[in-house]
Amino acid sequence: MADVLASGQFVTLPLGATEERLVGTLDLDAALAEGRAQFSPGVLAKADGGVLYVDEVNLLADHLVDLLLDVAASGVNMVERDGISHRHAARFVLIGTMNPEEGELRPQLLDRFGLNVALSGQTQPAERSQIIRRRLDFDSDPVMFCQQWQAQQDALKLRCEQARQLLAGIELDDHSLAMITERCFAAGVDGMRADLVWLRAARAHAAWRGAGRIEEQDIEAVAEFALRHRWREPAPPPQNPEAPPPGSSGRQADPESGQGNWGELPALAVTTGARREVPSWPKKP
């Protein structure tokens, strides 16, 4: 993949990386002695202008994922230690892979990834055979394998370069934006990140085709990638209130009293006894 990149930078972040290894470190002793910040670059500085790949991103500590996404969005890495700060450019494309069975990312973090692609391991038998055969050929003679596919690799690199040149000339027109915003509203996505990412991805797809403007096929081609991790299920319809039990009072609660009929009980039938008259006794003399 590094061969088709403009800068050729493809940096991998180890799973057990610390924050210092990610952002870099400042030598405080040198700063106090010489009066200047001595900065040791980290992974973010090495990935500037290229691609930063994170395997098992769902197993990475949340604060490191937050830091990665902040730098990827701003393009600047800021390191501060004890009142001393240093900043440098860190513009890169962040690619993360994960196995959902090992744990999910928090929705707040997942939404900040621009596109989401789901891969299935259930490939067709013919494709599986082709993958295994190419793997065996590479293990047998890596140099010969690379030479065999060099022409296809060069063609892919040339197409990427041509798409980059066309990208700046493709307008983000209002018609395409209206189509995307309507679809995002219908999908119930939160925020505006989906609209922005979808529009940019559609323009990139148009440049990849060699077109001069965004068309509906470009919008549809990247729709699933932009919405897959942002789609909201519609809320279930409210259930009909159950009928009151037999014997309950039909009186309505007084809205002004604020009490309602919360303490009301159904009337119970009570058996009454026979009534007897008290005899009239004569008065004593």
From TrEMBL:
Keywords on record: ATP-binding, Nucleotide-binding
Nucleus in keyword set: no
Keyword rRNA processing: no
Pathway: Porphyrin-containing compound metabolism; bacteriochlorophyll biosynthesis
SUPFAM superfamilies the record matches: P-loop containing nucleoside triphosphate hydrolases
Boundaries of every Magnesium chelatase ChlI-like catalytic domain copy: 30-100
Region (Disordered) location: 232-285
Ranges annotated as biased composition (Pro residues): 234-247
Domain ChlI/MoxR AAA lid: residue ranges: 178-242
Function: Involved in bacteriochlorophyll biosynthesis; introduces a magnesium ion into protoporphyrin IX to yield Mg-protoporphyrin IX.
Family: Belongs to the Mg-chelatase subunits D/I family.
Protein name, as recorded: Mg-protoporphyrin IX chelatase
Species, as recorded: Pseudomonas savastanoi (Pseudomonas syringae pv. savastanoi)
Lineage of producing organism: Bacteria, Pseudomonadati, Pseudomonadota, Gammaproteobacteria, Pseudomonadales
